[in-house]
Design brief:
292 residues, alpha/beta, Rossmann fold, 11 helices, binds thiamine diphosphate, binds iron/sulfur cluster, binds magnesium ion
């Protein structure tokens, strides 16, 4: 594993007074993303909880320009802005799209995939709270197997889409996973992405207090458990082939993660065992990539 102990230096781009729920981990991620990228940044944000954090203008919580685009078009909008800046000789300005999982895994995926294929010079960050939370916690293709959402009241019958591997398979210069429980690692990855040219993609797991049914102060702890149980490993992939593991499973039973969240409270012990088996098998397969 790679040691990424870092001093977090924040440029004060993110301000207090946003409209997210108290304790929202998406807001925490916004703070560290924007404060790390700094003043020379333009953000593109589609409809999502991120949009109520970053806008409406002039009441934005961010001291940088924010373009609120459609749910389908984050990557295309960011790519267009970056190309226009380059044409004006302003290549030093970072363009970052910050979208939810619904806007990334599902509705915005076509424009994201084609921007990746063209190797557009943008940073694309997915704040993955595993559902359409801003509209009442419906399921997305990021929602995990058996999790309750308002559109899967009996639990989602299919698995979470693996967007990290899909994006790595585009062979973009940089792909990484991160989460709010490991802020030094998150900042390290945003800073690294800032210094790379071409398409950069980071998916950040951000527990949604309301949609997952966790206490206001538990978001970061839950996200650490996601990593320590092996549910959501933190890793990087360069050019689709060079894998590096930052934080992975510590062998903690997945029940420690699941039983803290109301979205799983309908599960039987057999179903929790089933999830444990899947996590074990995924982790064994996943480790091969780092030993190769
Ligand atoms: C094409 C389209 N479909 C539906 C909507 C309504 N809508 C606005 S925000 C949102 C939820 C987006 O979910 P996600 O991207 O996961 O972000 P989150 O709210 O979870 O932060 C939806 C469905 C929309 N704006 N555009
Ligand atoms: S619904 Fe979830 S993601 Fe949205 S503001 Fe509240 S805690 Fe944050
Ligand atoms: Mg979401």
């Amino acid at each position: 594993m790679i040691d990424v102990a870092y001093t977090i230096v924040e440029e004060k781009i993110f301000c207090s007074g946003h409209h997210a729920c108290p304790g929202c981990n998406a807001a925490l991620a916004f703070r560290y993303i924007t404060n790390t990228l700094g003043q020379n940044t333009i953000a593109v944000v589609p409809p999502s909880c991120g949009a109520i954090i970053s806008g409406p203008q002039p009441l934005s919580s961010m001291r940088i320009p924010v373009y609120q685009t459609t749910l389908e078009a984050s990557a295309a909008s960011a790519a267009g802005i970056k190309r226009a800046l380059k044409a004006q000789g302003k290549d030093h300005i970072n363009v970052v799209a910050i979208a939810g999982d619904g806007g990334t895994y599902d509705i915005g995926f076509q424009s994201l995939s084609s921007a990746a294929e063209r190797n557009e010079d943008i940073i694309y960050i997915c704040l993955d709270n595993e559902g359409y939370m801003n509209t009442g916690a419906q399921k997305s293709s990021s929602t995990p197997y058996l999790a309750y959402t308002t559109s899967t009241p009996g639990g989602k019958p299919t698995a979470k889409k693996n967007v990290a591997e899909i994006m790595a398979a585009h062979r973009i210069p940089y792909m990484a996973t991160a989460t709010t429980g490991y802020l030094d690692d998150l900042v390290y990855k945003v800073r690294k992405a800032k210094d790379i040219k071409g398409m950069r993609f980071i998916v950040i797991l951000v527990p949604c207090l309301d949609g997952w049914g966790v206490a206001d102060h538990e978001g970061a702890k839950i996200s650490r458990l996601a990593v320590q149980t092996g549910v959501f490993p933190l890793y990087e992939v360069e050019n689709g082939i060079k894998y590096a593991l930052n934080y992975g499973s510590q062998g903690i039973p997945v029940s420690n993660y699941i039983t803290r969240q109301k979205r799983y409270r309908h599960l039987s012990s057999e179903q929790i065992d089933e999830i444990q088996q899947v996590v074990n098998a995924d982790w064994e397969n996943f480790k091969v990539k780092f030993n190769a």
